[in-house]
Give the backbone structure.
Amino acid sequence: MGKYFGTDGFRGEANVKLTVQHAFLVGRFLGWYFGRDHKAKIVIGKDTRRSSYMFEYALAAGLTASGADAYLMHVTTTPSVSYITRTERFDCGVMISASHNPFYDNGIKLIGGGGTKIDAAVEEKIERYIDSGEPEIPLAVRENIGRTVDFSAGRNRYIGHLISIPTRSFKNLRVGLDCANGSTSSIAKNVFDAVGANTYVINNAPDGTNINRDCGSTHIGALQKFVTDNGLDVGFAYDGDGDRCLAVDENGNLVDGDRIMFVCAKYMKEQGKLKDNTLVTTVMSNLGLYKALEREGMRYEQTNVGDKYVAENMFANDYKIGGEQSGHIIFSKYARTGDGILTSLMLMEAMIEKKRSLDSLAGEVTIYPQILRNVRVADKAAARSNPKVVREIDAVGSELGSNGRILVRESGTEPLIRVMVEGETDEICKHYADRVVDVMIREGLVLE
């Protein structure tokens, strides 16, 4: 974890933690780094936050000042930038977004030429440049100054890519979409209309400050009500930059990322398209998912929390599907990053081919109750390795046995220890989580 770049880019409150000067310097470095032996081409996308326009211009100024050409896709999704970077052979892609965060935050995500997140070593070099000005990067002059190029056509090519994926018509299916007043507002309905669905959309009128506000995948209640009030067959909720998707069945019940992955992985297995019958998850996926996978003869691999680690495992082993409980799901045949719209298309394919409702398909997974306690500590490493804490964690794990589990980990971005317990009831989860936290308190590890 770097000083500025975390697992999902450089993120913080706009003009407080992440400033225009930061964006300009990131552009300066990228334009120089990728243009050392040729004129670099770098594509930029942004979400609908008011500050995204400001950062877009700052990045473009930095890139062109270093001699690179900046191609502007304007408002678009993170997966579209990934797709275009890879297929159009750009040196690098940049997405300006803070994903599911409130509108006043923003972020800079860097995407390598292969469509996956840029190597951490490059991020480290950018951080050194921001702090020290090293290496000294000359300003381009005369004909070597870069250009900005309108590249809204890139978004249209991505829409065409999505439309080409489904092999079944969605005709007569009533589909609800919650676009979170974010990046999918200009894309999702076009895709579903093109494949024949009767599409009904909410929260697709961004104004710069309403992204993720009481809508989208972080506030699923709006879509649940919309689906039941209008008698829809299914609903999909995206986050601000469109790389996540959660679903709502015809009865208004939430279908989270774990259940979406199960439905899609099982369908892929039945089609003979699931490499080694394996699904890649993070350690935070629900125990109920793992029990369902084992029942169906499927394997799973677990990674650290973060889609970055899921992607690394998938591409190293050629696995076809993986993701997170949050709905950040990767289908490696079609994408190199999580893609909310793609996820909803793949889930629709399973429903149509199997002629079953989402409630029926997702109901094959029994989700175990889960509690997550975020404990603020002075020293994360010391708290996690404290002998008495370790003994209590081991004791809880033994007592839970095969009907539950405990996971205690350090937060990657905050001074927190996260204590997660799954069990057969909410009361059991609370009891065991409290036991571990109480030991931390008695040991003087917890800040008030």
Notes: Residues 26 and 284 are 32 Å apart (CA to CA).
